[in-house]
Amino acid sequence: MIGIFGTDGVRSRINTGPMRAEYIVRLALAAGEYFISKNNSFNKSSKPIVVIGKDTRLSGYMLEAALVSGFTSIGMDCRLLGPIPTAGVAYLTHSLRAELGVMISASHNPHFDNGIKLFGPDGFKLDDDIELQISNLLQGSISLAEPALLGRAKRMVDSVARYVEFSKGKFSPKLSLNSLKIVLDCANGAAYKTGPNTLRELGATVIPISVEPNGLNINASCGATEPENLVNAVKVHSADIGISLDGDADRVILCDEKGVIHDGDTLLAILALDMHYNGTLTGPVVGTVMTNLALERLFDSHKIAFKRASVGDRYILEKLKQDGGNLGGEPSGHILLPEITRCGDGLIAALKILELLVLSQKPASEFLHLFTPIPQKLVNLPNVDKAVLKSDIVKTQIQDIEKRLADKGRLLIRPSGTEPVIRVMVEAENAKVIEKTIDEVCRVFT
Fold it and tell me: Looking at the annotation, which residues are catalytic?
């Protein structure tokens, strides 16, 4: 069980591996044991609190019940938020002075997957070291609470309203969205209420799509990973801009009025340039190994320091903390603004972009076009054991491919931290170079 956490919590197909009810009870016991042991101030009149939110997956009910069973049996009070974005859990964990926050979500994955994300009292995701200690506690004996000291569970009916007010508070009070017609795709996920409500209350005309979750349709042909419906809706409704979130709303992509999609690299560029020239940017901007080379060149031309981290918002945040930075992100749409939010928040990232769009008085197509991305191609190789990447033969073959690629482009091969696949990315100006390199790499693994 050691090291059960991936790049973004624990994730698996429901009713398999760690996503079984009995395992989740055990995980709650271990997490509760860790945080209770770190704080000896708890007493009979003041039990430690754990905040639990979820997205709209059918399996969320089962996992929520399992978590409540584990946490209450060890003596923690539970505050159940219901469907709410991951960022809402992070915010309310800190706001309610809870000892622990839990988000039940597999983010952009299909409904048959689910996951557990844990947040500390500060509202930030747990460090690798803490996750490893919790993993180790899973293997040992855990003492349960005496009958009179069991925890209680209480559902918070105002959790959505609290998060909407928090989000609105991050939009400039001097501005309004009255001039904008916005298509908002909520991926039938956690933001199906918070997203439309926030934008409407800020004055926008909102055309919401994918806001009818049924437990099985989260991320299904919608959301940030499948933007076709967003593009069509923007064109049909002659909208000024489209916004697409994923299942737990921690990532966002945009669509301009012409139907062109703009990913997280574009958002990162806009925010970085604005903060740089306003004097509010601190430390280097942090991207990932997937960040487009054209964005790095743009930053260089503006004398903006830039660093790359491993894929995953937690690794971006770690590097931001190390270097004193206040802006990071990745192409998938995770944008980190640690002075504003405690984790990736697709809605608030979109609000900061909308502020600048309103001020620019430009159409989205003009405002969002800051650079031309260098072509990239990403291929997922399913059912490949990541252990093969340690093979000397495979390493040698990959090195030979990299030598042939040389200065023509960039090759990245990595195992997914959330799915059982090997991801291959090739970036080059020449499309033929991309296709040739992809074919060569695929032959290595077949």
Answer: 107
